[in-house]
């Protein structure tokens, strides 16, 4: 299992609010290398599949509906200690609790519309990256 990669999505709220460029700038400025990148959209079925680990939780239906409401940017990022460092960079899931200067503090509006997703483990980073990218789409 690789420990130097994480997966991220720029969520529909951040895309709609014009923050793709600022978020990618911040990712690069913090030492992450983008090794795969895609502008795409999830339909409800795909969003449900991506977040199937949360199936049954009270926020699942709202999450699926929100994540299929508009285009997203998917990316695989590489850096030593990628999972932990990226979670630090994005801040807490609930943006009201995110540290100043973090991506969610700067760009997120609510716990649902929280600007970005970041993998929580090496195992999930691999699963999530494989969900969006083939071997031919990684550089
Ligand atoms: P994300 O990191 O993409 O993983 C699951 C998402 O569910 C999370 O960000 C939030 O946007 C959303 N969510 C909504 N309510 C909650 C909650 N109570 N706990 C965790 N995640 C939540």
How much of the polypeptide forms β-strand, as a percent range? 15-25%
**Regions with pLDDT < 50 over 5+ consecutive residues?**
none
Task: Give the CATH architecture.
Answer: 2-Layer Sandwich
Overall mean pLDDT score?
97
Shape type? globular
Instruction: Measure the end-to-end span.
Output: 18 Å
- How much is the radius of gyration in Å? 14 Å
According to CATH, the fold-level topology is Alpha-Beta Plaits
Task: Describe the model.
The protein has a 4-stranded antiparallel beta sheet. It contains 7 helices and 4 strands; from the N terminus they run βααβααβααβα. With 139 residues, it is an alpha+beta fold. It is globular and about 35 Å long. It is 40% helix and 17% strand. The protein has a single domain (5-137), classed as Nucleoside diphosphate kinase-like domain (Alpha-Beta Plaits, 2-Layer Sandwich), CATH 3.30.70.141. α3 crosses α4 (60-67). It binds adenosine-3',5'-cyclic-monophosphate (CMP).
Describe the protein's topology.
Elements (H helix, E strand, L loop, with lengths): L4 E6 L1 H5 L3 H10 L3 E8 L3 H7 L9 H8 L4 E7 L3 H9 L12 H5 L8 E3 L3 H11 L7
Antiparallel strand pairs: 1-3, 1-4, 2-3
Helix pairs in contact: 3-4
The structure holds adenosine-3',5'-cyclic-monophosphate.
